[in-house]
Amino acid sequence: MSSTHPSLSTLSQATWLFRKHQIRRIDAVILTHGHQDAIAGLGKSLAYDLRAFTAPPSPQAGAVIPIYLSRATLDAVAQQFPYLVDKNQATGGGDVPSLNFRVFDDPLVDGEGVGGESMADGFDVHGIWVVPLAVHHGKYFTPPDQVERLDVPEKQTQTAPQTPPQVLQSSSNEIPGKNAIQPSLTSLLHRKIEETVKETVPFYCYGFVFDGKMIYLSDVSYIPTGTWEKMVSAIQPGTSGSSSPPTNDTISPSKLPFSASLPPSSRSLPCLILDCLRLEPHGSHLSFIQSLSICLHLSPRETYLVGFTHPNSHNEWVAGCREVEGTRAEGEEDGFLAAVEKSAVRQGKEMMSVWERAKSEWKGFVRPAYDGQVVRIE
Ligand SMILES: [Zn+2]
Fold first, then answer.
1. What's the gap in Å between 156 CA and the centre of ligand 1?
2. pLDDT digits (tens, 9 = 90+) for 307-350
3. Which terminal Cβ of the chain has fewer Cβ within 10 Å, N or C?
């Protein structure tokens, strides 16, 4: 699996990590979603620079690197790197990489009745059973079917009276409000977008369950109920990801990143790799306490948090995690712990209770992940 970091090219990561761990080839790539930090390495780095690490060419044409991805991610790849998806789009010398895109669908996202092999319940990658999990990763600010209309400003049909230049400083003898700043075209357009987006359209990212032993959720803001049920049923001893017909939720104002009516999982999960952006909530990622709420409900043996922003150091996150476990040394990153407590209060009663229960009842093993980390799962 490749999750590229925008500031370090896939090639740099490969020359460092692949050598360190004596990795000589990539068997497959699994993509989570179509954002830049998830697919940008595909065009230049993976398709060309990493040739030396790819599996020897197969006798079947185009079977060099299988790339597993959702339909929406394939669309994003096609937009950015047309020649990767359609050889007719090749330019220059006409050389194009041989990639084998394998699309998994999800009835929750793509609707029922998608044609062909859907792979929604899972797929086999070199003997590892992978179950895709559609999760919310923020929302569309413009519904996809209205992008075109909103992006093109409407033609002005009448000549608007010239408005005087905006004056930002008002002098004391002027009537209040006279020089109030007029709404700009941009703010009018934004208001129009907000009026048009009557209901939230989630942007979907994919997480995965690997062999029922490891759950990978790198970019998530909410786990819909259908996905949660599919995820839990895919944890060992079960390997199938099928569940009752998937349902989507109307997200309540609660800050819990899943429905409060879901029972805690009683299955044994060796490893969870989970999104955690920062202390405070965010539109498309999880806050620390939101991540902990998922830990409490899934009770994994080990959890590694990924995707932090810069303001807090690795050591601070380690201390926050040790506090949960009950192993934080006296005085270790006290300032950060005070910030965690404050943040819990700001996030409301429900999340405050998550923080308290994480420390008093759960006390599980959770740590920030780091570059080059290797996790072994028996
Ligand atoms: Zn993203």
1. 36
2. 999 899 999 999 999 999 999 999 999 999 999 999 999 999 99
3. C
Place of tokens 């761990």: 21
pTM: 0.78
Distance 363 CA to ligand 1 centre (A): 30
Q: Which segments of 85-143 are extended strands (E)?
A: 99-104, 123-125, 128-140
What is the residue extent of each domain of the chain? 1-104, 111-148+183-378
Residue 26, strand partner residues: 54
Half-sphere exposure of 164 toward its Cβ, with a 13 Å CA cutoff?
5
Distance 146 CA to ligand 1 centre (A): 21
The one-letter amino acid at 303: T
- Which DSSP helix (H) or strand (E) runs through 12? helix 10-13
pLDDT score for 208: 97
Cα 219 to middle of ligand 1, angstroms: 6
State yes or no: pLDDT of 165 exceeds 70: no
The highest-level CATH class for domain 111-148+183-378 is alpha beta
What spacing in Å lies between the alpha carbon of 202 and ligand 1's midpoint? 12
Confidence of residue 197 (pLDDT cuts 50, 70, 90): very low
Going from the Cα of 35 to the center of ligand 1, the distance in angstroms, rounded, reads: 5
Ligand 1 centroid–CA 205 distance in Å is 7
Report how many helices (DSSP H) and strands (DSSP E) the chain contains, helices first.
13, 10
How many CB atoms are located within 10 Å of the residue 337 CB?
Answer: 16
The pLDDT tens digits for 30-43 are 999 999 888 877 76
Q: In Å, how far from its chain's centre is CA 25?
A: 26
Rounded distance from Cα 371 to ligand 1 centre (Å):
19
C-alpha of residue 32 to centroid of ligand 1, in Å = 9
Tell me which residues have their CB within 5 A of the ion that is ligand 1: 35, 219
Q: Which two tokens stand for residue 183?
A: 């709404």
CA of 45 to the centre of ligand 1 (A): 19
| Residue 29 main-chain phi, psi, to 5 deg | -125, 135
Q: What is the pLDDT of residues 96-128, one digit of tens each?
A: 666 788 998 776 676 655 445 678 889 999 899
Taking residue 178's Cβ as centre, other Cβ atoms within 10 Å add up to: 8
